[in-house]
Design a protein that fits this description.
34-stranded mixed β-sheet; DUF748 domain-containing protein; transmembrane helix; DUF748; AsmA-related; alpha+beta; membrane; 987 residues
Length: 987
């Protein structure tokens, strides 16, 4: 024993022991690792495991492995490292902790791979390393107990992982996804697993060039807690997007993501605490396109989220602000009314080749989990600046393009769940000229908004395609203005669904016919002031409606169609079935009240191009008010309007109306004065056969409508109506127009006509204009057919006028009776009232009665001549005594009897009766035998015509040029007295 502790043996033993220790450390242990351990690990993992070299320094207590690699079965690299250096501190042998001076892992790498069946290669590796035996039933409990044991005490002076590489490949996608994270650099100082120990650390990795992940702070493993800061900078959107792009219909070709935040993780509390503070997310130059296309649909140059605070345990998310500017969106709505953003962000259905990942061991449906507490989200402010939207509506026949620019919006105090209304402010430019601004609050559950809405100079031209289906018109110009307070509530049991209080207006409106490009309607300004509108129920109250310079143009085109009849497009939809129409419930009529309607300088133009020359006329400067419009049944609005016809003739409309009720009420007086009729000359030339060369029109129209019953009084006055030369129009009326005008025109050149109209507006066949024309034509026809009836009415006591159209004479006489003299006076007075008429006299003789009377007259003359001849002196002034007259008749009769039969009697005449004739019989026989010819009748007829003319023109009562004698009428008469007819013609 003593020999053993002698210096020399002791030194030799020490040297031998050190040598053995060195041999074992430097050579034996590396050999065992390489020849035994590595093959055993490879066999256990079922994969090739390679190592380049193993170095152990037993004196420095260091361990170095170089070129370590675990391969897949196809010999591709799975994981490994270039060099692992571990320096164990010798003091750990006498301390209660394992202390390492340094652990360095150089160029570690791992190839993470998801196979087409959805399995992860690392999980397969773990199954091989842990074996396939099923865990015991109480494995979960044992694991929890093991977790509660204190961690193995480890201290590391320096832990450095440098130039790490993570390669990720997902082959379960339609197109395999690959990404590499390099280099990964982790540096920890004074790392410990002992309770209460805190280790500062730093972590950095470059996913791709200039894509950096940095993490610094401290970590404590017992208990497990950590606090620090992390940042992810320069991450390009396409890289992240490649992994999920197969699920969506859009692509992200550009974009840069930056994330940074301060965190704290603590497992000492239950549940564990994870908080993020002062987080920030920024997106720059984000671009979204449709799959397979290059054009950007969404472009966001800048998107920032500031002040992100998350408490996972409390499920709260607080964000100070979200800011973005200069974003541009491009959208459209297809024919089926789907917006491109709907399909753009809608997830694609899973591919049939993708295998859903399910737990094969689980065969029973899990129990329904308890309803989790919802997250509370508070967002202080959202600010969007200078956004833009190009939107195309393709649902119309002609696509509509809308352009929104300078969109600025601010939303404050947004909280989820939505309990309180959200303050918001929104403004933008519409189609370059219009501006929209909304400011107020919006509630989401249930939806309710209260905003002040302002629209200024919204152009109406871009909205033209929306009326294509209903009217073929062109909106040439127009701007919409609106300024008021709007309230909308989806749930509104005790209030209207929508209310609006404010003003509404349309300026500089011009609508024209799309085909003819001729104006239809327009105005300078329409303003609805202090309008109160509600919906459900529907009510409208307007303080004032102002209409400045409204203009309507009604044009008859050369083909006879009006410009308004052409604006309705051909019907393309069938009428709804009667059952469907009847099933719709008809709600109560809306309540409408308009206090005042102000009309300023309105005009209505009528142009008829179907006639040559074209007719152009119209109403101008129509100005006035309508006060008290209301849908109440008993309400009546007062109307006072004035204007000018053709800018000269005064027009006045006054009365009361109620057009807003079901039983429309109208009581209006319309008065036109001094309207120039030469404007209508083309019409009169075509339809009357004579163009108007001069004339003025005056109208007094009274319209009353009550309970759909019309009563109209049309008083027409025409002054100095004068026609030009007759035309050859084939459309001219057969009525003698000049005569009708002359009959109607008084001594002052004025025509007065009353046309009362009555009708039932419920009658579908009732057309007011048609009834007026029909009534006028009937009146003119009656006047022309019975002109003397009109003449009789002109003079008090003129009677029916029927007896004014003839003078009666006794047979053989041409002397007017006292009654006819009075009749002549009536005619003279009537013709004085109608200076445009002339009288035509037809002298009449009866071949029977007048011939007999002329025979008696000739017989008396012959008897008188014989009596004076027998006495030898003239006694023309003396009357023949009765005895002498009888004697002379008998002598004359005897002389006629002694004449040959052929001379006195017709051939074959029977012999005279035996009884001698009386004196009267002799007189009649002698009178009938007097010589007679047709000229005698004509002379008598002419004498009668002259007698009538003398009665009319004597003493200058009637100008001779107004009385004409026409050819005599010696035909038979059915009257006891001979009637000489009178006729009326136009001068």
């Amino acid at each position: 024993m003593r020999r053993f502790f002698r210096p020399i043996p002791l030194a030799i033993s020490a040297i031998v022991l050190v040598g053995v220790y060195a041999l074992v450390g430097f050579f034996l242990l590396p050999y065992i690792v390489k020849s035994r351990v590595i093959p055993s690990v490879s066999e256990q993992l079922g994969r090739p495991v390679l190592v380049q070299d193993v170095e152990i320094n037993p004196f420095a207590l260091s361990f170095t492995i170089t070129g370590f690699e675990i391969q897949e079965t196809d010999q591709s690299a799975l994981l490994g490292f270039e060099r692992l250096y571990v320096n164990f501190e010798s003091s750990s042998l006498i301390r209660r902790a394992f202390r390492f001076d340094e652990i360095t892992l150089a160029v570690p790498f791992v190839a993470v791979r998801i196979f087409p069946n959805g399995q992860l290669n690392l999980l397969e590796l773990m199954k091989h390393s842990s074996g396939t035996a099923a865990p015991p039933e109480n494995a979960a409990g044992a694991e929890r107990q093991q977790e509660k044991k204190p961690l193995l005490p480890i201290e590391i002076g320096l832990l450095h992982i440098g130039s790490g590489i993570v390669e990720f490949r997902d082959e379960s996608k339609r197109k395999p996804f690959e990404v590499s994270i390099v280099p990964i650099d982790i540096r920890l100082q004074n790392f410990t697993t002992q309770r209460g120990g805190e280790s500062a650390y730093a972590f950095s990795a470059e996913v791709r060039k200039e894509e950096l992940l940095n993490w610094e702070g401290y970590v404590s493993l017992d208990p497990l807690e950590s606090e620090g800061k992390f940042s992810l900078t320069g991450v390009r959107g396409p890289v992240l997007w490649l992994y999920v792009k197969d699920r969506f219909n859009f692509e992200i070709p550009d974009g840069l993501l930056n994330i940074n935040a301060h965190y704290r993780f603590d497992t000492t509390v239950e549940p564990f605490s994870l908080k993020l503070n002062d987080g920030e997310i920024s997106l720059t130059n984000l671009v979204l396109t449709e799959s397979g296309k290059d054009e950007a649909v969404i472009s966001v140059p800048s998107f920032l989220i500031h002040g992100i605070n998350v408490d996972v345990a409390q499920k709260t998310l607080d964000i100070s602000s979200i800011e973005s500017k200069d974003a541009l969106f491009k959208g459209w709505m297809e024919k089926d009314k789907t917006v491109n953003f709907q399909t753009l962000f809608a997830p694609k259905p899973p591919d049939a080749t993708e295998v859903p990942q399910k737990d094969a061991a689980s065969t029973e449906a899990p129990a329904a989990p308890a309803e989790p507490r919802p997250w509370a989200v508070a967002l202080k402010e959202i600010v969007f600046k200078n956004f833009g939207l190009d939107f195309e509506d393709r649902t119309t026949l002609t696509p509509v393009h809308h352009r929104i620019t300078a969109l600025n919006t601010t939303v404050r105090d947004l909280r989820v769940p939505f309990k309180e209304p959200i303050p918001m402010d929104l403004g933008f430019q519409l189609n370059d000229t219009g501006s929209v601004h909304a400011n107020g609050t919006v509630g989401l559950k249930p939806f309710e908004s209260s905003i002040h809405l302002s629209l200024s100079a919204i152009p109406l031209k871009p909205l033209e395609p929306y009326v294509e289906g209903a009217a073929r018109v062109a909106v040439d110009s127009g701007q919409l203005d609106l300024n008021g307070d709007l309230h909308l509530a989806v749930e509104h049991s005790n209030a209207p669904m929508l209310t609006y209080n404010g003003n509404f207006g349309i300026r500089n409106l011009s609508i024209s016919d799309r085909d003819g490009v001729s104006p239809l309607i327009g105005w300078k300004q329409l303003q609805l002031k202090q309008m109160a509108l509600t919906v459900d129920p529907t009510t409208v109250t307007i303080e004032e409606v102002g209409l400045d310079q409204p203009a309507v143009q009604f044009r008859i085109q050369p083909d006879g169609q009006s410009n308004f009849s052409n604006i309705r497009p051909p019907s393309q939809t069938a009428e709804p079935a009667p059952e469907a129409a009847s099933s719709q419930k008809k709600g109560p009529p809306p309540t409408v009240a308009v206090k005042t309607v102000k009309l300023l300088r309105g005009s209505a133009t009528f142009i008829d191009e179907s006639i040559r020359p074209a007719v152009r006329t119209g109403i101008h400067d129509l100005t006035g008010t309508i006060k008290g419009l209301s849908s109440k049944q008993l309400a009546k609005a007062d109307v006072e309007l004035t204007g000018r016809m053709d800018k000269v003739a005064p027009l006045k409309i006054s009365g009361a109306i109620n057009p807003l009720t079901e039983n429309t009420f109208t009581d209006l007086l319309v008065k036109f004065e001094n309207v120039d009729l030469t404007t209508a000359a083309p019409y009169s030339g075509k339809y009357a056969g004579y163009p108007i060369s001069k004339g003025k029109l005056f109208l007094d129209l009274a319209y009353k409508v009550s309970k759909k019953q019309l009563e109209a009084e049309n008083k027409v006055a025409i002054d100095q109506l004068t026609f030009g030369e007759k035309t050859d129009s084939p459309d001219a009326t057969s009525l003698p127009v000049p005569l009708a005008v002359a009959l109607l025109k008084d001594r002052n050149g004025r025509i007065d006509i009353d046309l009362p109209i009555r009708g039932d507006l419920n009658d579908p066949d009732f057309k007011y204009g048609k009834v007026v024309i029909s009534t006028l034509l009937n009146l003119l026809t009656k006047i022309v057919a019975s002109p003397f009836a009109l003449m009789g009415k002109l003079i008090p006591g003129g009677g029916s006028g029927e007896d004014l159209q003839y003078f009666e004479f006794a047979p053989g006489s041409a002397i007017a009776s006292d009654e006819d003299v009075k009749k002549a006076d009536v005619l003279v007075k009537a013709l004085a009232e109608r200076p445009g008429l002339r009288l035509e006299i037809t002298g009449t003789a009866d071949p029977v009665r007048d011939r007999q009377a002329l025979g008696f007259r000739k017989l008396s003359a012959e008897i008188l001549a014989r009596w004076t001849r027998d006495r030898g002196k003239s006694s023309a002034d003396e009357s023949i005594p009765a005895q002498e007259e009888q004697r002379l008749i008998k002598e004359l009769y005897q002389q006629r009897r002694t004449l040959p039969a052929s001379a006195s009697e017709p051939s074959g005449t029977a012999a005279s009766p035996v009884t001698p004739p009386t004196i009267e019989e002799m007189r009649r026989e002698l009178a009938a035998a007097m010589p007679f010819d047709e000229e005698d009748l004509r002379a008598l007829a002419h004498q009668r015509a002259e007698e009538i003319r003398n009665q009319l023109t004597a003493d200058g009562k009637l100008a001779g040029e107004r009385v004409y004698l026409v050819n005599e009428d010696i035909s038979a008469s059915d009257h006891e007295r001979i009637r000489s007819k009178l006729g009326i013609a136009a001068s």
